[in-house]
Specification:
- 84% of the residues lie in helices and 0% in strands.
- With 331 residues, it is mostly helical.
- Helix 3 packs across helix 4 (104-129).
- The two termini are 33 Å apart.
Length: 331
């Protein structure tokens, strides 16, 4: 009996190992597909009531496909210039930050972090720069996975609930609720809101003639990065653009650009829109989100921006449940 059990354990481990090795190359697009499907799901439900599940999935997948194809084309055409501009923006930002009156210990930490972020960013982009077929393949995996998730969303939800342990079903439900709250806050508020603001600023950089299309894209990406950080934000980018226009002798355009950034990038949207989108009891606070985003980025790459905060949010729920059990006198 023991021999048979050992054989089945070995066989199971081999199957799990082979399964992991099979999905590992495409795990990043699959996670991004899950993330985008989660964001699009409310729209999919509303649209499905009017035109049906399959047609709704086809329409949303078609829209996503167009944007992703444009992304691949733009990546092929402008990646090197965008990389140069973005590295420049990051370098200028960290040099400005390190020139502030910081405590020596904090200065040393930020200096190491700055160098590490720039190096990892360079390595990450370089890996895709010379492997466009790999990027295209991952885009196709993302598209088909996204479509499959939308069509099978109800079945996936039912399967998740069926896998909950009966003895700790309440804890499992709490974890699911915390995960949903964290995803809502992170994806539908922070990331989605930051992407919209980054796109707005990139458009303005291009229209006002502050940068070419590569520099504008890089400015938009950097705005998204700044929006994820506490205290700093997208206002730094529109302020820099306004100063650039003013120093170039375009005072009127500088004021106009500043008003545009103030109203559409930061801080006006934060006061009038973010609080309406975010629930009063969010599933993730600023510290957890910040640590999760950068810790996940270092550990897992770009997909860690999603994995990190969600994981820390779930860990916080487990700690809270353990404290509740301890207080009730359970072991």
């Amino acid at each position: 009996m023991r021999t048979e059990t050992a054989v089945w354990i070995v066989v199971s481990l081999i199957i799990l190992l082979l399964t992991w090795e099979t999905i590992r190359p495409v795990i990043t697009p699959v996670i991004f597909a899950l993330t985008i499907a989660y964001i699009f799901h409310p729209w999919h439900k509303n649209l499905a009531e009017k035109i049906g599940e399959r047609n709704s999935g086809l329409v949303l997948t078609g829209i996503l496909t167009v944007f992703l194809m444009l992304f691949v084309i733009g990546f092929a055409l402008w990646v090197n210039e965008v990389k140069t501009y973005l590295t420049l923006y990051l370098d200028v930002f960290f040099r400005w930050l390190l020139n502030q009156n910081l405590p020596p210990s904090l200065y040393d930490v930020l200096q190491r972090v700055a160098g590490d972020i720039l190096r990892r960013f360079e390595d990450y982009l370089q890996a895709y720069t010379y492997s466009l077929p790999k990027l295209t393949l991952q885009v196709f995996v993302l598209i088909f996975t996204f479509y499959g998730i939308l069509l099978n969303a109800k079945a996936i939800e039912k399967e998740v609930y069926s896998l909950m342990p009966s003895e700790r079903r309440e804890l499992a439900l709490r974890l699911l609720r915390r995960g949903e709250e964290t995803l809502n806050m992170l994806l539908r508020v922070w990331l989605a809101f930051s992407v919209i603001k980054g796109a707005s600023l990139a458009f303005a950089f291009l229209i006002f003639g502050i940068a070419n299309i590569s520099g504008a894209i890089a400015a938009g990406i950097f705005t998204i990065i700044l929006e994820l950080l506490p205290v700093v934000g997208g206002w730094m980018m529109w302020l820099a653009g306004a100063v650039y226009l003013f120093q170039g002798g375009n005072a009127f355009l500088a004021v106009l650009f500043g008003v545009y950034g103030f109203l559409l990038v930061s801080p006006v949207p934060d006061y009038f829109l973010r609080h309406r989108l975010a629930p009063s009891k969010s599933g993730v606070n600023a510290i957890i989100a910040l640590v999760g985003i950068f810790g996940g980025l270092f550990a897992f790459g770009a997909v860690g921006i999603i994995i990190g905060p969600v994981t820390l949010g779930l860990a916080a729920t487990l700690i809270e449940e353990w404290k509740n059990i301890t207080e009730r006198g359970y072991k």
